Every structure is written in C-alpha cells, then in structure tokens.
From TrEMBL, chain A:
PROSITE patterns hit by this protein: ABC_TM1 (PS50928)
Membrane topology: Multi-pass membrane protein
Annotated localization: Cell inner membrane; Cell membrane
Family: Belongs to the binding-protein-dependent transport system permease family. HisMQ subfamily.
Name of the protein described by the UniProt record: General L-amino acid ABC transporter membrane protein
UniProtKB/TrEMBL annotation, chain B:
Protein name per Swiss-Prot or TrEMBL: General L-amino acid transport system permease protein
Residues annotated as domain ABC transmembrane type-1: 237-428
InterPro entries linked: AA_ABC_transptr_permease_3TM (IPR010065), ArtM/GltK/GlnP/TcyL/YhdX-like (IPR043429), MetI-like (IPR000515), MetI-like_sf (IPR035906)
Source organism (scientific name): Kaistia soli DSM 19436
Signal peptide from the UniProt entry: none
BP term (GO), one: amino acid transport
Gene Ontology molecular function terms on file: transmembrane transporter activity
Family label: Belongs to the binding-protein-dependent transport system permease family. HisMQ subfamily.
Main location: membrane
Xref: Gene3D superfamilies: MetI-like
Subcellular location: Cell inner membrane; Cell membrane
Entry keywords, A to Z: Cell membrane, Membrane, Transmembrane, Transmembrane helix, Transport
Residue intervals passing through the bilayer: 42-64, 106-124, 136-154, 174-196, 203-222, 234-261, 282-300, 356-378, 412-435
Membrane-topology annotation of the record: Multi-pass membrane protein
C-alpha cells in the first residue's frame, strides 16, 4: 500500500520527496529494525546451539519422557521417583495452582475485610487496618516468607510432640496433620450431590434476586442455598451408608522416644512449606487488595450512601446493596492484577523448597541442563495463566460494568 | 401604690456563647464520636484495643524488654527469650558491605555518600540545578560508582587487529575504537550526502554518542590505583542498593523507549514493544532471573563470560523496564492531543516533539507511579538471594546460620532487622510518592 503512494509522489523525480515521506521513512526504519532483530536472534541462536553442543546437551523437549529420579513431598496426582520429568512438572504445576488458588480466596476475604475496616468510622479499627496495610506492603514478600517459614513455623513442637486444635488438627514441625478422607463405593454420588447442591443454590439465589426485583420482597435465598449445599451431600452420605470414612493420623506418645511421633502413612499431612507460602502470599496480597477495595469504595460518591441512609437502609445494607456493587466496577480491574501478582509471586516457593512449578523446574534444570526448554515452559505457563485470568476477569468485569443507555 | 418595683426583667446585653458541653469536645467528645458512637462501635473499640494490647505486648517484650543488647557470641543469646541485638551489632558491617575488604570500605562509603548528596536535592521540589543533578545521577554517578566499587582498570584488549601490528591491550583497543568510529562517521556522512540531507545534525548526534563512549571506555579502562574487588565479595545493603539503583537508572530510559515504541505508528516496532512488555509483565521476576543466570551464558559467544551480579542486573533492568514502560505510557496517554498537534504545527521533528514537549509533561505526571514502581523494584531486589547473590536479606539469612551466633532467636532477630531497614526505605518512598501526588494535584487545580 505504501509502495503505491510513493510511486505516485516521486513521479516528479525529486529524491527529497521520497526521503521526507513519513511512510517511506517508517518502512525503511522498520526494515532496518527487523533486520537488526533477526540478526540479533540469529546470533543468539547460533551461540546457544554451539554452547549446547559443547556441553553435550540435546535441544528439544525429549527429556520430558526421561525418568526424573527425585521425590516430591507434596503431590496431588500419582508420582514416584520412577515417573518422568514431564509428570514431575505436572505435579509442580498443580501445586502452584493449589497454593495460588487458595491464596487468592484467603487474600480476597481478608483484603475486603481490611479494606472496609480502613474506612470504618471507628478510629481504632481504621488505625489497625492502616497499620496492617502500611507494614505488610512495605516489607519484601520474600522476607515475610522467610519470617513465617523459618521463624514462626519452626517455633512449633518437634517431631515427637504436637499441638492439637479442636481435636482433629495436630501441628508439629512436620506440618499439619489432619484426618484423611477415604473414599469407598458411592463416594462419587456424594460428590455429585454436592455439585447439584451448589448448582441449585446458584439457581435459588438467582430466583431470589428476580423475585426481589419484581416484588420487593427478598426470600431467604442465602439460607436455602446453604441448606442445599450442606444438606444434599449429607442426605446422600447417610442414604448410601456413609461411603466416606476418615483415616485419623496415629500419634505414638508411648514407648522409646525415637518411636514417638506421627505414624508414617496415617492421616494426611499438609507440609509446612505450603503453610508458610500460603500465609505469606495471602497476608501480603491482602494488604494490596485492601488498598484496592478502599480506593473503590472511596470512588463511590458520598451522596450514594447518604441517599441510602435517608431511604432507611442500615449501615450494613448500604454497604451491601449500594456501595459495594458500585465499587466493584472500580475494584475488579486492579483486583485482577493482584490475583496475577499473587500467582506470579507463588514462584517464591523455590526459596522454601515448596515443590511448585519453578521449584520442581529448577531441580529438572539442574539435573538435565535443559535451560532453554525449562525457561520456555515456565514462561508459557505463567503467560498462559495471565492471559486466562485476564480473560475470565474481563468477562466478569463486563457483567458488572455500568450499562449505559 | 405607684412605687411598686417593676419585676419585669429585660436583658440589656446578649448572652455570650455557651461552651459546648464537655461531652462533645475535647478527648471525651472525640472518643464519643470516634470510638463509642453506638453500642456496636463501643464493643468494636474495646475488642480492637484489646487486640492492639495483645499484639503489642509480646512485640515490645521481644524487641525491647527481653532483648539482649550486648555480648560477644552465642552465649549471650542462647538463653534469651527476646531479640538478640548483640548479634546485629556484631554483624552490622557485614550487613552493609558484605565481604568487601575492610580497608577498602571507604570506597563504598563514598558511593553511598554521593548518592545521598545527589538524591536529596533531586527530591526537594524547590532545590535548584535539577537538570544538572539528573545528568549527574544518570551518567557521572554510575560511572564513578562502577570504578570505585570494582576498582576499574578493566582489561581492554581489542578484538580484531592482527597481533603482529599491535599486541592485545588498551592501545589496540583505542586504535580499533578510532577506526570503527571513523568508519561509522564516514558512512553516516556519505549516506546523508547521497540523500541530500544536511550532514551536520546526524553527524553531531553520532559524534556525541561516540565521544561519550570514548570517555566511558577511557574511565573504566584507566588505572586509578584502586585494588580490584570481585563482585563475589560484595554483599549486604551494598548489593541491594546496587541492584535497586541500577534497575532504576537503566529502566527509565529503556522504559521511555518501550513506551514510545508501544505507541508508535510503525506496526513492527509496536508489536515488538508490546511483546516485550507483556512477556516481562506476565512472568515472575524469579524466572527472569533464572533466565539471566542460566540462559544468558548460553547466548554469549565462546570465551565471553558475564559476572553473576551483572547477569542479575541485566535481568532486573529488563524486567523493570517493562513495568516502567507501562507507567510512562499512562503519562503519555494523559497528554492531550493538542500538545502533539501543536508541536507538529510548529514544525518539530519526532525526537524534538518528544524531547521538548511531550516527555517533560508526561514524566512529571507519572512521578508518583515511577516512585511506586521503584518501591516494588526495591522489594524485588531480595529475589537475587535466590540465585545465590548476597543482598541484605541473603547476607542476614547466611549469617543467622553462623555457628558463632546460632541461637533460637538469632534468625528472627535478623529478619526483624531486615524488615525495619526495608520498611524504612519503602515507607519513605511511598510517603514521597504521596507528597508529589498531592503537589501535582494542587498545581493542576490551581
């Protein structure tokens, strides 16, 4: 397209006209730029190929099928030392998703509470929230992670002792020991009942909202939903003859001192690395989410809450029906960013050896030397996750966005 | 009975304003309004007060009352139930300088001092010589720091002139530099002549760049008589500041270029900028650092090796540049179209438009954002500890395991100390950002 323009204009024969034509200049510059990029990339590729050849490393993803030979302490899917590198990375990936997903839930709840507290008319509460935000935000996450993992979680009892909470949570230096659910035949039906309960609760909530919009009366949709979510699986559980049992962790506190402690293989153990990371990630991100929430609520005009008050709504109702729905529009985009940050920050797991994707990948990298492939896998995973999260959050954002006429 | 005294009372002057009841003003009134305005609020206040006491008492006990302030080794702290400040005191030089040779630490001090002296007037809005100061901070200071910290005297050997003409060494390098410069100037001059442009403008730009490069090479190659200090011996706050300041200084120009590239009309440039920015922002810093530490050596030709610290610096600078670019893009977008069009109308070229009209305005607007991104960079510098550098956190982590001071409270004391240092830096930066934000708001309104 540019070529046609040039032809027409330079018909007069003046070279200056061509040179001063912005599109020609742009074209020349871009060609030069691409040439420089290609040369740069080729140079890098050439050097890399030569260096890899010298180090006797075969490029490509073939190494993923080879036997890993190292153990992983926390695995959500079947994995042994005889499994492949690819399987090991899958385990790491799932661990990343687990800690990030749980972290997001906790950070969101905590962040909303603290963000609202920061705007509380109660001076003390507002001060506590401010102090929390200012302290947590201005200390590096890695330092906080070290603090929780090396200082706090090491202060719990040793392997031969334990602390017990509520009778079922046992904590010692080996982690959190809880009963492990054992699924017998029919457990799937209970799970199905749970899913049905959740779906039904959502439908009830929707019906409740419609009814409120139509008649002004709000049916107790929330309570019905809770009853459905808890009740349906319970009914199924008892009707099917209790197909889920619990394997309680066995603690030996008798006999020789070296025999004491939790019996291996009994119950379920949540490793302290997971705890430390989850704690650090969610507390740190909650401070940011709180600021986001505060900014969002402040962005809702004061007249809105005054109008709601003069309509006779209580403080809580004003917040729930008037302020938060409007604030959500401001909050969601930065909230998405915080979720992504939390997910990316979960890579700090490598510092406390929680087996996430980066940590497991680092081990694979050290064993195989496949640096290029490993970094590529990391980048693709995190980039893909970023894109996916922004995609999902964009859809939600569009739903809550202001619908203008 | 006409003399009956009138009982009617008519006030001849106004009643003075009454004082507000004591329950509405002063500390009591304040407490009623802010703490006990309703039953729920009263309960909340009491719970909050108890919570504060419950949190503060152990903290104060640990850091002050039960703390150990003096001692020579772990015996002082082995039985302590409070912080072991004696350990921090004993290790303080290490936390600041790492394993930098003791008799050479004055060099580090000078670098710190120069930074403080140049930075403080930069941050005070009324202080004069902003432009000169910025020039100093972005050019002279990094160069001087480099020479002071490493010792300078880089062995420049030259690459391509045959050995029998002149042996490898600074002379060969200088000859080669002159030769290459000559060729470049010749090519640019020829090209300009062929295209019928005035050669002076592009010629002077090239001249400035080449001249600056020559000065840089001269300075880093010169022998100032300083003992060389390997970067492996650097540590503590020194490394933290080196990584942070390098990241900040390098990311500003790179960020400007990327931001302009992202808003460019040329599709190739735009796509390249967007790709770089989004890839960097989409991945965790730790993978970028791993990439810099394990992949960069693969990218280089045989025989060229980079220092571990330098690799980390490159990674941090590129990563930070992507974030900086997004901050600056925000500023560019806030400049109204009229400014661009006005600049075009008076016949300024693209570089002139950007340099003289757009960037000065855009960068001013985003100062709070820039400081904000510096804060995250400063916190992120701790990640270099993961790839085996000893920054402040890494140094503390390493020293806590030292058998001489090992005790149950050593580690936590170190973390508290690190937290205080990082907090002081980051909090003052965030206050500064808030201050500029208010100032900008005011100037824009007024």
């Amino acid at each position: 397209m540019a070529a046609g323009d040039i032809g027409a204009r330079s018909f007069g024969g003046r070279a200056a006209a061509i040179i001063n034509n912005p599109s020609v200049r742009g074209l020349v510059f871009q060609i030069a730029f691409v040439a420089a990029l290609v040369w740069f990339a080729w140079d890098i590729a050439d050097n890399t190929a030569r260096n890899l050849q010298k180090a006797n490393i075969a490029a490509g993803f073939g190494f993923l099928d080879r036997t890993a030979g190292f153990g992983i302490v926390q695995k959500l899917v079947y994995y042994t030392e005889a499994s492949s590198y690819g399987r090991a990375l899958l385990v790491g990936l799932l661990n990343t998703l687990l800690v990030a997903g749980l972290g997001i839930v906790i950070a969101t709840i905590l962040g909303f509470i603290i963000g609202v507290a920061r705007l509380s008319p109660n001076w003390l509460i507002a001060r506590i929230a401010t102090a929390y935000i200012e302290i947590l935000r201005n200390i590096p996450l890695l330092l906080q992670l070290f603090f929780w993992y090396f200082a706090v979680l090491r202060a719990v009892p040793g392997m031969r002792e334990k602390w017990t909470f509520l009778g079922i949570f046992h904590i010692n230096i080996g982690g959190l020991h809880v009963p492990r659910p054992v699924f017998a035949d029919g457990a799937g039906t209970v799970g199905l009942a749970l899913i049905i309960g959740v779906v039904a609760a959502v439908l009830v909530a929707r019906w409740g909202r419609k009814r409120q919009e139509a008649t002004g009366q709000a049916p107790p949709a929330g309570w019905i939903g809770v009853a459905l979510i808890i009740g349906l699986p319970l009914i199924a559980y008892f009707a099917l003859g209790r197909p889920i049992s619990f394997d309680v962790p066995v603690f030996n506190d008798q006999g020789p001192i070296l025999r004491r402690g939790f019996q291996a293989g009994s119950g379920m153990t949540v490793i302290p690395e997971f705890f430390g990371l989850l704690l650090a990630l969610s507390l740190y991100t909650a401070a940011y989410i709180a600021e986001t929430v505060r900014a969002g609520i402040s962005a809702v005009g004061h007249g809105q809450s005054e109008a709601a008050h003069s309509l006779g709504l209580r403080n809580g109702q004003t917040l729930r029906y008037v302020v938060i729905p409007q604030a959500m529009r401001v909050i969601i985009p930065p909230l998405t960013n915080q979720y992504l940050n939390l997910t990316k920050n979960s890579s700090l797991a490598v510092a406390v050896a929680y087996p996430d994707l980066v940590s497991v990948g680092g081990t694979v990298l050290n064993q195989t030397g496949q640096a290029v492939e490993m970094v590529t896998i990391w980048m693709i995973f995190y980039l893909g996750l970023s894109l996916l999260t922004s995609f999902v959050m964009n859809i939600w954002n569009r739903r809550v966005a202001l619908v203008e006429r | 009975m006409s003399t009956m005294a009138s009982t009617a009372y008519v006030r001849s002057e106004m009643v003075g304003p009454q004082k507000a009841p004591p329950s509405m003003i002063g500390p009591i009134g304040w407490a009623r309004k802010n703490l006990f305005s309703s039953p729920i609020n009263s309960v909340l206040s009491i719970v909050a007060a108890l919570f504060i006491v419950w949190c503060l008492i152990p903290v104060i006990r640990f850091t002050l009352i039960d703390a150990v302030w003096t001692g020579d080794d772990r015996a002082a702290c082995a039985q302590a139930s409070g912080a072991c400040w004696a350990y921090v005191k004993a290790y303080l030089p290490q936390f600041i300088y790492g394993r930098y040779p003791i008799d050479q630490r004055w060099r580090v001090d000078i670098v710190f001092l120069m930074l403080a002296v140049a930075l403080v007037p930069m941050l005070i809005p009324r202080a004069p010589f902003k432009r000169l100061n910025a020039l100093f901070l972005l050019t002279v200071y990094p160069l001087a720091s480099f020479v002071l910290l490493t010792g300078g005297h880089i062995g420049l050997r030259g690459r391509f002139l045959p050995d029998d003409i002149v042996g490898p060494g600074p002379v060969r390098f200088a000859l080669e530099f002159a030769l290459v410069s000559f060729v470049i100037i010749l090519l640019v001059g020829l090209g300009a002549r062929l295209l019928g442009l005035r050669a002076s403008q592009s010629g002077s730009a090239i001249g400035i760049v080449l001249g600056a490069l020559a000065v840089v090479f001269m300075v880093v190659g010169a022998d100032f008589g300083l003992v060389p200090v390997e970067t492996a011996n650097w540590g503590g706050l020194l490394v933290t500041l080196v990584v942070a300041v390098t990241g900040m200084v390098a990311s500003l120009p790179l960020g400007v270029i990327l931001a302009l590239g992202r808003r460019s009309k040329m599709p190739v440039v735009r796509i390249a900028s967007v790709t770089f920015i989004e890839v960097c922002r989409g991945v965790p810093l730790i993978t970028v650092l791993f990439m810099a530490s394990v992949m960069l050596p693969l990218f280089l030709p045989e025989g060229v090796t980079f220092d571990k610290l330098l690799r980390a610096l490159i990674g941090v600078a590129l990563f930070q540049a992507a974030y900086m670019a997004e901050v600056i893009r925000g500023g560019l977008q806030s400049i109204s179209r009229g400014q661009y069009e006005g600049a075009m109308a008076i016949g300024l070229s693209y570089p002139q438009r950007m340099r003289l009209i757009i960037l000065p305005q855009a960068l001013r607007v985003v100062i709070p954002g820039i400081v904000g991104s510096f804060i995250s960079l400063f916190k992120d510098t701790t990640l270099v500890a993961i790839i085996g550098l000893f920054d402040l956190l890494g140094q503390i982590q390493a020293s806590a395991n030292d058998a001489k001071w090992a005790s149950p409270v050593t580690g936590i004391t170190g973390y508290i100390f690190a937290a205080m240092v990082f907090w002081a830096f980051c909090f003052s930066m965030s206050r500064y950002a808030a201050f500029t934000e208010r100032r900008l708001d005011r100037s824009r309104r007024g």
